[in-house]
Amino acid sequence: MVLPAGRGSSCIELSDQKADPPMSISRSFLASVSAAVFLFAGAAPSHALKLEWTEITKVPAPNPLRQSQPAPGGSPYATAYAPATPPHKPGSADPMALVAQEEITPAATPQQHARAKAETLGAQYNVPDAQTPAAQLAAVLDDIDAGRINEALTARNRMPDNLDRRIVDWRLMVAGGPQVPTQNITQFAASAPHWPSPKIARTRAEASLAAANLPAGDIITAFGGTAPESLQGKIALAKANLAVGNNGAARKLIQPIWHKELLDRDMERDLASSFSRVLTREDYRARVEMYLYRDRTQGAERLIAKLSRDEQAYVKARIAQIRGNGNAEKLLNNLPRSMRNDPGVLFAKIEIARAKGDYLTAAKLLQQAPTDASKLYDPDEWWNHRRVVSRQMAEIGKVQLAYDIAANHAAESPLEYTEAEWHAGWYALRFLNNPGKAETHFRHIAQVAETPITLSRSHYWVGRAREAAGDVNGAIASYQKAGSYHTAYYGQLALAKLSITQIPVPPLPQITPQDRQAFNNNDMVRAIRRMDAAGHHNDTLLLYQHLARTLPTNAQVRQLAELAESKDLHQWALMVGKLAYEARPSASTLAYPTNAIPAQTRITRGVEKPMVYAIARQESAFNPRAKSHAGALGLLQLMPGTAKATAKNIGVSYRTSRLTSDPAYNATLGAAHLGELVEEFDGSYILTFAAYNAGKSKVHEWIERFGDPRDPRVDPVDWVEFIPYGETRSYVQRITENLQMYRHKLENKPLAITMDLTRG
């Protein structure tokens, strides 16, 4: 099909003392566990210093909205207002977040105050360097890695109170296990609260508590009213409550686990036996449904006897459908009357229709589906059906049906909810010409999204809806909000709408003598260097991650990234930059390192160096030894067959091992392959990026289905969104946004996203 006319990327036009050795269960053990639980729940007044660490890691707020001169050549409605400062939300429920969170530093106070606080705290918790050879530390760390915890504890107890002992205590805490005394964990956290420990320590303490076989009352006392955070802790507290007759509290803890968690058979059997008094038939039904929605038929079969006879017939029919048995439809159609209208039956019939390619039948069935999430067991899986089927309906021109299917979703997770609301808004705006309804859906996205990618998407499309409704000022305001997320695809499209030609990237932070001294004195940085000298650099990853989030200045974060790069760990440098950027927007430039592509790489004529960086950042995160599940290798994730053919085309000898051992070789072949794709698709970057991810044949298929993005009548923004593979759709957007950032960083070139989308 041909997409709606109009190029959406154009400017606005209205259209961490020595510990005792392992001990038997005793009151002192209970006391140490209780201290751990309270400590890591933030309830111990003696650890208010942890709050100070949070405070000193705050950073200055970004500059307020400012106004600049209009850019030449913009439309009459284009504005040169700088994009609004993003309303930064630390942490992320958003699955599109660049790196998984541990803890995120909130934004706030001036850098000089932060640095002063950091220096004060650093001095308070500082420890002297070890005066012994690094080999001695290496031997203890080797014991920990090999699980020889008693040997490591013996060696640790002979150590003076210095950096090496702090490192060992931290590694013991991370390793965990019943041999690590809880007292060690709590003492480490008290002496080094600024190390990456609270969540790990809390989990380890709860595990020790669960394994200790304490009286129920002691377990309840240990938690002291705080909520368990680990699965083991929740089960231990639930069992304790059950033992003292508090069935309601036990059920409240165990029910979510029983309904949602995948457990091994022994644990499942233990919970079924332990909580037989509080688990009802409805709870067993919920667990069976969990198995069915995840296509885990053996799990469902294990529990089927706990259900009614009618429910058992239903489960057998569902299992037949999941396994693709030929009698599945017959079983579904001949269910007992009490089960015929169960949503799970509808779900199974939709899956059968989709498997046959009968999307119209699937659409009609979806119209009968409940919209009450409580009736669906797994609302997000239902949305997945709605997403696929609604896109099929839009493709064949049944756009109202596509909208109805999407808009009536009951998605719950942030990822699925934002996808559902976006789809409904897109259909309403671009195909039903209803900008008011579309804006409502697009605005819902920002209410749950927390990352630049998704927030910019929300604000950009609100802008598009307002623009379509003739609200120029409203559109400008929305594009300003979107443009504040300048690293994101839709933020960059919004900048283009505002005729802003320079991406507002903060400059690379300059390292002052004070920054260098503070960084070198930091005990975690010293620990990284000491562990590296001991041959345990790989054990420092958590320290890098924690420092990236908590170092008080971007200049210190820059030194951390440079430390990683000095070890040729460009992927760690990227990780540091991404985490720092998540903690504060002013660190965005650090999320785009520029030393990962070897200087000796030969880049094919017609291929931009920023493009090679853009691809490598997304494909391997600059890990030259990366291997994908599909077999792609190295920096630019080349399939061996593709690499071999490309090597032949450019007259280079081929050796598969070099794809992961020689980054320049990999990048040379990757750049050459990009050149081949650019040529095949007449210079189209959209098609080149899509083909690099999904293959050339798929791209040609999509051109037939959705039109050609090189055609001026086709909106390339819509074309990208129409790509059926979610991975490829996101891939094209991520490469495009990376390209803009690397052009700016490597060549100081202006924003050219509009041109990139319309090339060819």
Automatic annotation (TrEMBL):
Source taxon at top rank: Bacteria
Asked if Signal is a keyword of the record, the answer is yes
Q: SUPFAM superfamilies of this UniProt entry?
A: Bacterial muramidases, Lysozyme-like
Compositionally biased tracts (Low complexity): 70-83
* Listed CDD domains: Slt70-like
Q: Which PROSITE patterns match?
A: TRANSGLYCOSYLASE
UniProt KW keywords: Signal
Query: Boundaries of each Transglycosylase SLT domain copy?
Result: 604-708
> Which GO molecular function annotation, any one, does this entry have?
peptidoglycan lytic transglycosylase activity
State the protein's name.
Transglycosylase
What family, per the record? Belongs to the transglycosylase Slt family.
Give the GO terms filed under biological process for this record.
Answer: peptidoglycan metabolic process
Q: Which organism is it from?
A: Pseudovibrio exalbescens
Q: Which GO terms describe its cellular component?
A: membrane; periplasmic space
* A Pfam family hit: SLT
Where do the segments described as Disordered lie?
1-20, 61-94
Q: Which residues form a coiled coil?
A: none
